[in-house]
Target: RNA polymerase sigma factor
Amino acid sequence: MRRAGDTLGSASMRSGGERRAARRRTAGAPDGQAGGNAWEGRRVRMKVEITGVDTSTLPVLSNKEMRALFEAMHRGDPTAREKLIHGNLRLVLSVIQRFNNRGENVDDLFQVGCIGLMKAIDHFDLSQNVRFSTYAVPMIVGEIRRYLRDNTPIRVSRSLRDIAYKALTVRDRLTAQRGEEPTIEEISAELGVPREEVVFALEAIQEPVSLFEPIYQDGGDPIYVMDQVKDEKVREAFWDDEVAIRRALDDLGPREQLIVAKRFFEGKTQMEVAEEIGISQAQVSRLEKAALRQMQRHVKPGE
Model:
């Protein structure tokens, strides 16, 4: 998916077409007034940066205005549906907050949520004594969950995905009730599913991480995932000439010698080395790279 588009078009499409329509609908909102307290304002501004939707200009529809627009839409007013979409985009932004910990692109979730919103608008029954938000939220959530279920980077069986998303739902609910995250055992008991299946299902939907993904940077050299991976054969993989290495090591300072020895002869991670010698992992990374550059000049003097 791409970032939200530029204009509002008709909203009569479904499935892939409706998703494309959502991209066009989410940026060109009509002017209005922003509501909510100061905290809500900060959250909305954050979402402006993420999705490209200027929610500060979106109208805040009262229940009376909402009903009037639904009645106009049912009479065939072509603009009423668009106004209902604009007036409820904040509802979509609120819903996608629940999925912040999934590692998904927020723009994509917002677009999918807009599809759920449009479906809710199309199917809402004014004769039922229910607030629109009460009806719309489950439809928006359901649309997003279907998207997450069907768009994992690695194909996972339907049964595993179902267990995983049920487990995430239970986790979110119990966390909201207790103020702390439940254990796997508690989630397992709540679902009536063996603990091992819950763990396996949750692991199956995790997004793969690149070995070159930076996990820490304090202004110096970044630390990558690969720096945390212990390699028992790193000595043989990196160095062929033991004598040349020993000579190069002799020219290093005591701390650099210790770091290189632990990293490349003992195969320890930078975090393990940092804990042993009492400095930060970032310092270990910088000292290690400086030491390797110096050693390379000795091992390969012609380069």
